[in-house]
Amino acid sequence: MQAQGQPKQQQTPPGTEEKMTPKPQSENPNYKAAGKFEGKVALVTGGDSGIGKSTAIDLAKEGADVAIIYLSSDEDAIKTKERIEELGQTCLLVKGDIGDKSFCDNAIKQIVAKFNKIDILINNAAEQHPQENIEDITEEQLRRTFQTNIFSMFFMTQAALPYLKEGSAIVNTASITAYQGRSHLIDYSSTKGAIVSFTRSLAQNLIDKGIRVNAVAPGSIWTPLIPSTFSEEKVEKFGTGTPMKRAGQPYEVAAGFLFLASDDASYISGQTLHINGGSVVNG
């Protein structure tokens, strides 16, 4: 199979799908919904674009109303909301920084005021700042990466937990970097390793409440995070080193979130699903 990369391109963080070439594929054209989340409410952090957007749309296709928390990309968020509403579901947009505990508390209050409940929590939002040397990782960057990527999962889960009940599900976004590491993403990879441990421990903590907790560990997926944090040269080759020799599309990852959040995964908790184009990581 010939390796398939992308055209050279670069954006300023956090990036937007509108400026990407080619645009990420958010929806599987062959998707067949089965009403698996009818009457349920799902919260997706980072649901304006990339994996979060695709997951939010698929949840809506399955009958869920969706709350999306996003940082700054208004255009992406509005387009995702419009798509969810086209599907006949209600979508609430909440803009802000999930690394701030008070924001997480207030966001959950807004969501409950709108929908009266939360059934599914998708902790997905993250940021990365590549650095070639550990000496180049500033204290500010280190704190910011941990604040957004792992502290936020504590904050959001703590705020949402009073509204989750038996049968609810939490799905966290980890990464292949938690298992393989990345020399230029030391702080990011460290947060993703923490997310795997967070998932396993939280699953044990909540199992008696009937709340399942799992994670998805994506590999090289074509999202705004890539052109907004990597050089043009790395973007051009992004994904070509996987066994499938291409980057994955967001909809190829979203299916994993829907599975773990659904009753199809009723006997699964504390696990991580690897969606990475064929890399075996044994974890």
| Low-pLDDT runs | none
Shape: globular
Order of helices and strands: EHEHEHEHEHHEHHE
Overall average pLDDT: 91
Please give the radius of gyration in angstroms. 18 Å
CATH fold type: Rossmann fold
CATH H level: which superfamily? NAD(P)-binding Rossmann-like Domain
Describe the structure.
The chain has 283 residues and is α/β, with parallel strands linked by helices. It has one domain: NAD(P)-binding Rossmann-like Domain (Rossmann fold), CATH 3.40.50.720. Helices cover 37% and strands 13% of the residues. It has eight helices and seven strands, in the order E-H-E-H-E-H-E-H-E-H-H-E-H-H-E. Helix 1 packs parallel to helix 2, helix 1 packs across helix 8 and helix 3 runs parallel beside helix 4.
Summarize the structure.
Helices cover 37% and strands 13% of the residues. It is of the alpha/beta class.
Summary keywords:
Rossmann fold; 8 helices; 283 residues; alpha/beta
Helices and strands in order, then pairings?
Layout: E1 41-45, H1 50-61, E2 65-70, H2 74-86, E3 91-95, H3 101-115, E4 120-123, H4 139-160, E5 169-173, H5 177-180, H6 186-206, E6 212-218, H7 232-237, H8 250-261, E7 272-275
Parallel strand pairs: 1-2, 1-4, 2-3, 4-5, 5-6, 6-7
